[in-house]
Amino acid sequence: MSERLQTLIQTVEAADSSTLLIDAVQDLAASGLEGAIPTLIQALGYNNPGAAVAAVDGLIQIGEPAVSALLEQLDQHNYTARAWAIRALAGIGDPRGLVTLLGAATADFSLSVRRAAAKGLGTMKWHWFPKDLLEIAQEEALESLLFVAQQDEEWIVRYAAVVGLQALAGAITAYPEWRSQIHAQFEQMTTQDKSWAVRARACEAQRQLKIAVESPQPQDEQPSSLQSHDWQSVLANLYERKGHERLVLSEGDPRRYRDLAVAIGRKD
C-alpha cells in the first residue's frame, strides 16, 4: 500500500464528524486507486448519505476492479449498503452485475434503487458480451425495462426506464422487432403516461434515436477482460432467474442457457 493511499484511508477512519467523513471519502474516491475499494465499500454502510454518494462515485471511477467486491457486498444484511452497491454496479455497467440490476429494477422497494438499476440496464457494456449471450442478456433487459415503463408507480423510475430503453435501443444491432417494441412503448408514453416529465422524456428519446440512426456516432468499445468463468457465472445467474420465472418451454426456454453454458465452458 502506498503512503498516499494509507494516509487517505487513515483520514477516513479518523474522521469524527459528518463533514470530515464526507471530505475524507471524497478525497479517497478522487484518488481512483484500486486499494481504496474496501474502504469505499465500507463507506456505503455508514449512516452518511454524502459519504455514500462520494464512495459510489469513486467505485464507478475505479470500474471493473470493484465489481467482485461490490457483488460480495450484496450478500450482507445491511440494506443501505446493498442499495448503494447496486447504484455503483449500475454506474459501472459490468456484465457481472446484470442479474442484480434486473432484479433491482423490477422488484426493489426503494424507488432510488429501481431508478438507478433501470438506467444501468440500458447502459451495460453490451459490446463485452459474446454474441450468443448478448441476445439472451438484451432480451432480459428489454423485458424488464418494458415492465418498469408500464408498471412502476413512480414517475421518476419510469423516466429512468425511458433512459434505459433509449440506450438499449442504440445498442441493439440485430432484432429490429425489439427496437420496434421500444419505439411503440415511447409512442404510448408520449400520450398516455400520467407524468408530463415522462411524456416529454419519451418524446426526446424518440428524437434522439432518430438522430442516432441518421448520424451514427463512433463508439468507444474497449475490449472486455472477463474470462470464460465470468461468463459462465453470468449465464448461470440468468438461468437461475429464468427458472424462478417458471417460464414454459418456448423461445425463452431456459435449456438454451444450459446449452450455451456448455459451449462457453468448452472455451476454457
Radius of gyration, Cα only, in angstroms? 20 Å
Helix content class: over 70%
User: What is the CATH class name of the largest domain?
Assistant: Mainly Alpha
Count structural domains: 2
Features:
268 residues, mainly alpha, Serine Threonine Protein Phosphatase 5, Tetratricopeptide repeat, Leucine-rich Repeat Variant, 14 helices, 2 domains, 0% strand
What this model shows, in words?
With 268 residues, the chain is an all-alpha fold. It folds into 2 domains: 92 residues, Leucine-rich Repeat Variant, CATH 1.25.10; 131 residues, Alpha Horseshoe (Serine Threonine Protein Phosphatase 5, Tetratricopeptide repeat), CATH 1.25.40. Helix content is 72%, strand content 0%. It has 14 helices and no strands. The chain is globular and about 55 Å long. The two termini are 33 Å apart.
